[in-house]
Give the backbone structure.
Amino acid sequence: MQSFPPHARSVALMLIAPVLWSMAGVFVRQLEAAARWELVFLRSWFCVLAMLLFGAALYRRDLIDRLRKLGWEGWLSGALWSVQFTCFMLALTYTSVASTIIIISLAPLIATILAWLILKERVVLRTWVIVTVAVAGVIVIFWADLGAGGWVGNLIALAVPVAAGANWVLLRALHADVDLVMAVLVGGVIAGAASLPLALPLQATAADVGILAFLGFFQLALPCVLAVIAARHLSPTEMGLLGLLEVVLGPLWAWLWAGEQPAGGTLTGGGIILAAMAVEAIARGRGARPNRRCVQPLRSTIRSKSAP
């Protein structure tokens, strides 16, 4: 891939990242005995191990120094990442894959609202219209899941884009230049440590551990690293539009390989949200420049940007 121009390589990496992200739901549906808090615990610690390996490959001898210099802003970012890791996995155990992934795609719009509230940034009328349309899509999804009890999972899933938006806005408010590879590693540590008391006694089978190891390494850690690398040469619009591929693929894999057919209301609401997000990403892209300094949370950068 080194023979390709940097932009083409970045597009390729940013195509791989959402494909990997989208696999979470279908693999979770294959688990045999692991309880919901075990999912959080094992996936988080496998993510930590993977991030240490990837960090060593990227930074070599500077890995420990980068972790030591992360600062309290980096730990704050890591704590918000841990909320995303935890709530995403918990939501998948309460509601459908489609509802979970569609709801977390709201991160850029929530970040926009938080930036308006906290940073006093001006929000154009177009964005307010898109926010209103997206909220309508969310209401449709909640209504579709109301009878089945999936609304609990939807509420938990909603914490993911809120945490992602808060991550991005707070780092901007603090003018913090945070190493996202290290922040994701810290997020895994916090999520893994916090979920341990609730995960005991462990019930996961060997097959479950293998699936959660795959999720920690290849569904969470690897695409996060790929997105950080890709963001160096892609505009926010390109990152946002390519990242939306996860919203399309996640429910598709769950339908094809786990027999989970989304409710009609979920598809309708998801279509509304997906269209709104695409319009917003394209509109924001006029005159946008590549992300030379990637300080947003990955799922925040990726969807408007946001990703999980």
Notes: The chain has one domain: 6-303. The chain has 15 helices and no strands. Residues 206-230 form the longest helix (25 residues). The CA atoms of residues 40 and 294 lie 26 Å apart.
